[in-house]
Amino acid sequence: MMRFNLYSDFLACFFILCTPVMVEAQKADFAVYDSFAQLEARISSERAPVLVVNFWATWCKPCVEELPYFEALQRKYKSRKVKVILVSLDFKSQQDKRLRPFLEERKMISEVVLLADQDADEWIPRINENWDGAIPVTLVFNRRKHKKGFHKDQFDNYCDLECYIKQFL
Amino acid sequence: MKRLASILVLLSGVFLLSMRPPSPSSYLIGDKAEDFNLQSTDGVMVSLASYPDVKGYLVVFTCNHCPYSQLYEQRIINLHKKFAPLGVPVVAINPNSPEIVPEDSFDNMKKRAEEKRYPFNYLQDREQAVYQKFGATRTPHVFLLDKDLYVRYIGAIDDNAEAPNLVKKRYVEDAVAALLNDDYPDVEFTRAIGCTIKKKMVAK
What we know:
- The structure holds two protein chains of two kinds.
- By secondary structure, chain A is of the alpha/beta class.
- Helix content of chain A is 49%, strand content 21%.
- Chain A contains six helices and seven strands, in the order αβαβαβαβαβββα.
- In chain A, strands 1-4-3-2-6-7 form a six-stranded mixed β-sheet, with helices on both faces.
- In chain A, strand 3 (82-88), helix 4 (95-106) and strand 4 form a beta-alpha-beta unit.
- The longest helix of chain A has 26 residues, at 2-27.
- By secondary structure, chain B is an alpha+beta fold.
- Chain B has helices spanning 2-18, 67-83, 106-115, 130-134, 171-180; strands spanning 38-40, 45-46, 56-61, 90-94, 121-124, 138-139, 141-146, 151-155, 194-196.
- Classes of the chains: A alpha/beta, B alpha+beta.
- At the A-B interface, helix 5 and strand 5 of A face strand 9 of B.
């Protein structure tokens, strides 16, 4: 009897511990960060010399308009080690209804993460003091050359984005 | 040498002051706002002076199409229901150009106000001059004014757009409570994610 209990406990533990991981692994093509600290950790762990971080959402029209420019940038500069991270500010509750179908339909190649930290007044100034939360905005880092940029608002076309990023290469 | 050093310190101070980041809002806390005269969905022209016996105004830049505005819609209605009887009504202004966002046309504003039974005035900033004067950048964006139109609070309604039941900091409610108490709010400026205000393109 004791043995049976142990066994079933083990099984229960196995399912409790592993099920969420398994489900997550099947579905996830973007990381979900509940806290801004997770995004900071992701950014600081990036090894590409130039990192471009764009804040956007599927519901934001100007953001969606400029997404193809970021995709084109990622395609063109991949070999030269520019890394694009698209930080979606979509609602976490709609990730399967809105964000995932959106990404699948567009077959996005850039890394996408979902930032679901709701305490925006806490983390927005940590991105940039001059940002009050309207999107899109874009951050650029070149850690080796200690260059950092913050671009408010939409890029008008691919050239506009590329010219901006070139200052940091 | 000492004198040169002090001049340099002074100069760098002036330089640093001039380098101060531009304010994210045109009106700052303590500035006096200018009254406006905009058409409401009821068809009448509304200015702040047309409200009799108020203790303040919750000027909320919001709109039809933005998902953040939609998430906050009920909370904006609740704010009016709670504070209008105490003398601080909501004055909602749609700053978007209907040429860019047809969903924010005056007819669609009327429809929305009727459907959702807005208890407050929903005004159209047709010339897009009022939002620029206030320095609103997104929807929703709240400006709390006292009865003399001095700005007391600028920013978000609360700290959780997506889940009203998980809200911890009720910025606007706290700011209005302070105003009604003849006091100033502890938090007078907050940032929040929102939709950019859609400005009509002007031919260059």
